[in-house]
# Entry
Amino acid sequence: MDSRNRPELFDFHGVPMTREYTENWVDVQNFKARPDDIIIASYPKSGNTWLSYIMDLLYNEETRGREKSLKIFQRVHMLESTFHLLEPGTEMLNKLLISPRLIKTHLPVHFLPKSFWDQNCRIIYVARNAKDIVVSYFNFERMTILHPEPGDWSSYLHRFMEGKLLFGSWYDHVSGWWRRKQTYPHLHFMFYEDLIEDTKGELDKLCSFLGLSPSDEDKEEILHKVHFDEMKKNEVVNHATVDTMDFKISPFMRKGKVGDWKNHFTVAQNEEFDKVYKEKMKNSTLCFRTEI
Ligand code: A3P
# Structure
């Protein structure tokens, strides 16, 4: 891959961002939400693609099931994206006639356009434990030229702890959205670890939040399609045809496990990480599992 093509991080209202997610900022902030829009929000590498595919199957299977060529990022558009040669996310969303619109975002809670709150839109936030996030994010940034150069693992881990990666501090992201959940009733907070442990139970809770009641047969079919092994071989979601990613370095559907961090952290790194974690999360009631 050509490292010269990689974007640079810069400070954007206190959050490290790149031009790919900020160039269209006025349109993002002025975005007009529709009351039935559903946001799928997360810090990068938390399982957003997994949830997006579940949501697409819940809402659009009937109409789009046969449109095999539509990739997940064409089914669930990313609000803040302004990728080279593609229409900005806001423009693609404005043109969408389907209802509800499923909208992906990695924005920290205070960046979400006001209109979504004014319209009382439903929001699903998926969170994942920090140790697996940093491993997944490192491998992802190694393989995609859409993100800044990750450098070596040790320095990457430190930049994660300092909140200096794209979309900012994981600690602030999850804590911010969690705090918002306490006062905003239309926010369904999910954990990647729960989804791994009991996908069916989490699907049931999600359907109950959305007011959907699919048949047992439909649910079984969704559960089959969203299994990691199935998604890994499905070009709708595995990003295999995306030319900004180099699968020789790492696949997009990489491991899909809880606890892979143990294969990457040294004992010393783990101790330092735990210390920083305790300090950063001391005011949050949010609890994560790093193994199941
Ligand atoms: P790993 O790199 O740890 O494997 P996002 O979609 O937010 O970028 O998150 C990507 C992470 O979710 C990757 O984690 C990916 O493998 C995992 N993932 C995607 N689909 C999954 C599934 N069906 N089951 C388990 N993990 C899944």
Q: What stands out?
A: Residues 42, 44-50, 132, 136, 139, 196, 226, 228, 231, 253-256, 260 surround adenosine-3'-5'-diphosphate (CB under 6 Å). The beta strands are 10-12, 15-17, 38-42, 77-78, 102-105, 122-127, 187-191.
